[in-house]
Amino acid sequence: MSESQVKQQNTNAYHAQAVISFAIALAAVAIGIYQLEASAWVRAFLAVSVLYLTTSAFTLAKVVRDRQESERIVSRVDQARLEKLLAEHDPFQQKL
Question: How would DSSP label each residue in 18-66?
Answer without folding.
Answer: HHHHHHHHHHHHHHHHHH--S-HHHHHHHHHHHHHHHHHHHHHHHHHHH
